[in-house]
Amino acid sequence: MFDFLTHDMLAVIWFFLWCVIWGVYFIVDSFSLGAGLLVPFIATDKVQRIQIQRSVGPFWGGNEVWLILAAGGTFAAFPLVFSKMFTFLYLPMMLLLIGLVARGISVEYLHKDDNPQIQKVLMWGWFAGSLLISLVLGVAFANFFKGLEIASGGVYNGTLPGLFGPYALIGGVLFVLMNVTSGALWINVKTEGAIAAKAGDLAKKSTPIVFVLVLVYLAYSFVGIEGFTTNYSTTPALYLLPVLAVVAAILAGLFAKKNKRFPAFCSNLLAFLFVVQSGLASIYPYMLKSSVSLEYGIDIFEAASSHMTLSIMLGGALVFVPIVIIYQLWVYILFKEKIKETEQVDY
Amino acid sequence: MVELLLLSRLQFAITVAFHFLFVPLTLGLALLVAGMETVYYKNKDETWRKMADFWGRVFKINFAIGLVTGLAMTFQFGTNWGAYAEFMGDIFGPPLAVEALLAFFLEGTFFGAWIFLDRSRQKLKAFSMWMVALGTNISSLWIITANGFMQNPVGYEMATDGSKVVMTDFFALLTNSYVWYMLVHTLLSAYLLTAFLIMGICAYHFLKRNNNEVFRKSFSIAVTIALVTAVLLPVLGHGYAQYVAELQPAKGAAMDAIWETGSSVPMYLIQMPDSSTGSNSVQLLGIPGLASFLYTGSFSGTITGLNQLPQAELPPVEMVFWSFRLMTILGSLFIIEALLGLYLQKSGKLYTSDKYLKLLMWSIPLPYLAITAGWIVAEVGRQPWLVYGLLKTANGISSVSTSEVLLSVVLISAFYLILMVFEIYLIRKTVVNATGVE
């Protein structure tokens, strides 16, 4: 299969797909993470909590699979990167895992028991899980863009505190606020009543902050991160990515202000997508960039699987990813109604 | 290094065993609930709606934990088994990625749809559950395909520098005979576990003299499944065991603790192996030639004994032996219980046979035990190999610090313990209150 493609070409295609899959994951999970980040602060009673839960309930599980696909895809296409990424970032990955488990269980079990105390614990579990996921991913990806402390021979010298530099912290905060904004706009779009209005107001305030953060993060990347501009100099077309990110962030604010909720929601997600892609575009051909010296990084050609594995996986992705997207979109249509306040069904 | 290996293995054992407490019920209940949803859609009989509601509720609680603990499995191949991931990525990665693409998306997406669709859209609700059932069952095929390679490597060649395996034939991975033996065995045991859980819960309500039609109908479905699977498991399992003994002689010999090579090997009903002496410290009530028959298909067949196999490549014999014994004894018990259940039901004495009903209630954990024992036979029996004949377990771990792994073992164990307590509490409450059945 795909014999007309060389191994290097397949590796490049898979790097592109890898960026796409991560991008899709970040945006599809953004609003459910955001809902989790917001729920303890904006839901005043059980009715509103159920509204928020229902606004993400039918979608979050299927959306999270994009993360599993990102991990599984890394394993299949770039085993070396999969191994090193998870080994180097052992504790952050464990935290991410705990966050994912906490979030999932909390959303699913939120109202399975009538005890208000248990419901409260689960609500905070949902929050804590969402926060952990957003932060770890934001910090991790900033570190990927900046480069990990990989010395000669692939030896990792990084430490846990070392991962929390200023750039990484901005990244973490950016991810959290991006998700908060997506969550607010989603709740605003999907629900009716007081909670929708409250979420809408919140989005009006958070979109300008996100815009500033996007600017700061990108400026820091281009000015303060070594080697970030290399690919941009050789391929100036890439500048489209950060430009689109900034434009989308501005649009999100404008739409939110004019109460055009759905366009605001989409713009915010696009801003998120393009910020991440701006970073990913900078590290090519490396997947694990080294901050010590470029040549110590792990590049896609070195990490890629065999021609056969890459082509089988490519065939599988080309056939099944569109099918997945179709039925996931279908579920959004299935649950297109706004969630009213009166509904109190047992989940 | 030794501690790191032990901790890594411990963590894997905890996470996989915990995950697998939820998977079998998901596999079985998904199909049953899908069936119930469909019957209700066709005949609009309220009993079937209540059945779908009640078992669906149990399913929801169980499924959520299976879903989130599955994440740990994917992560761990990278975090704790990095060397393995690099060695095996070319072969092991694709089934995992395909599993996400073909199975997890179906499960995750349609599970959400099924929960939130109300009865006014019953056709879609039933359809969604069928997609969940399809997803979960397809998932088992792919993960067993990945595991199958570890047990019986096929369709590969070693990289020229010997650092990793490279795929040469994807189709061979799928047609690996080990995969199909294992898949059938795993799915049957999952359905058996589901049937016994349903029977146990029904028994609880019969004991309370709650002979609601929901439970009576559920019981008669479950007892049939229990009997069919309980009989098929040893019948097909026999072929599986023979195959395994041929494939991995050390695992085979350890299952019955056969120390010395010989023909017409008896099987002892009472036996206690001792690997320090390389013999059985107790062996009583031997049935002549039975072991030979079970392993080779002929009462006079020859079996290679553990003492004649390479000593550095033996699994922990006692653990494999006792797990195998436990599994087979429980398997026999399941047949008896299922037969008895069918008889009592047909003769109309079921609802008053308190002793039997109590036995059923207490039997709910037994299939879980049997399945875990079976996994120990398959996975511990393969030791010291991680990938049979190609990579030792000791060479598969990540180069992380012992303290990191210790921390994660403690963290995960504590977290999982809380989850389990909460899950049992919720399921128990659902079952005892029989929510929605009255």
Characterization of the model:
The complex is a heterodimer of chains A (347) and B (438). With 347 residues, chain A is mostly helical. Chain A has a single domain, classed as Formate dehydrogenase/DMSO reductase fold. Helix content of chain A is 75%, strand content 1%. Chain A has 13 helices and 2 strands; from the N terminus they run αααααααααααββαα. In chain A, strands 1-2 form a two-stranded antiparallel ribbon. In chain A, helix 1 crosses helix 11. The longest helix of chain A has 36 residues, at 7-42. The relative contact order of chain A is 0.16. By secondary structure, chain B is mostly helical. Chain B has one domain (2-261, 304-433). Chain B is 72% helix and 7% strand. In chain B, the strands form 4 sheets. Chain B has a two-stranded antiparallel ribbon with strand order 1-2. In chain B, strand 1 (156-158) and strand 2 (165-167) form a beta hairpin. In chain B, helix 7 (213-247) runs antiparallel to helix 10 (317-346). The longest helix of chain B has 42 residues, at 2-43. The model of chain B has no long low-confidence stretch (mean pLDDT 91). Classes of the chains: A mainly alpha (347), B mainly alpha (438). At the A-B interface, helix 3, helix 4, helix 5 and helix 13 of A face helix 2, helix 3 and helix 13 of B.
